Amino acid sequence: MNRSLTRSVRGLWPRQRKLRVLAVSSGGGHWVQLMRLRPAFTGHEVAFATVDARHFGEVGDCRFHTIRDSNKTNKIALMLTLFDVIRVVLWERPDVIVSTGAAPGFLAIRVGKLLGARSVWVDSIANAKQLSLSGKLAESHATLWLTQWQHLETAEGPFCEGGVL
To answer: pLDDT at position 1, please?
Structure first.
């Protein structure tokens, strides 16, 4: 992981105690990118949530939650995902929520914000020409809004803090 990103994330929460971190993503590339952020979580209490229970073995001693996958095209599935996310966020009570997307991560950031959690949104590497829909929605809810592509960075955000994951 890029050192400047690690410094940026740590600079947002300069505390002496361990933070409760909830790392949330959809499956596939979103999950792979979230796993590449793990060094930024070192020294903190971390829980992971994703849509595929088969990833349980990848998180080591960290807590693991499975949530339903959904997207904007199926409103009922999206509501079920929201209920799963509410359950996980209430159970974990994170100080920080980190997500690489998509819908489950955005919902976690929204729910976490209502409970006072700070958040980091890292838009997907796959969105090289424009931000993802979830990334655009995360703008007004994430504490730190990041893109992996320098040409998508603006003065108001998202910000580019280094290389691609």
So the answer is: 42
pLDDT single digits (tens) 98-127: 998 899 999 999 999 999 999 998 886 555
Average pLDDT of the segment spanning 74-93: 97
**Bridge pairing between strands 118-122 and 96-101:** parallel
DSSP per position, 54-108: GGGGGSTTSEEEE-----TT-HHHHHHHHHHHHHHHHHH--SEEEEEESHHHHHH
- Residues 60, 113 contacting (CB under 8 angstroms): no
- Is the N-terminal amide bond of 23 cis, ω within 30° of 0? no
Question: What count of other Cβ atoms lies within 10 Å of the Cβ of residue 89?
Answer: 26
Helices 103-114 and 75-92: crossing angle in degrees, nearest 10, is 50
Q: For residues 149-158, b (16+ Cβ closer than 10 Å) or e, as one string?
A: beebeeeebb
Identify which has the larger pLDDT, 146 or 12: 146
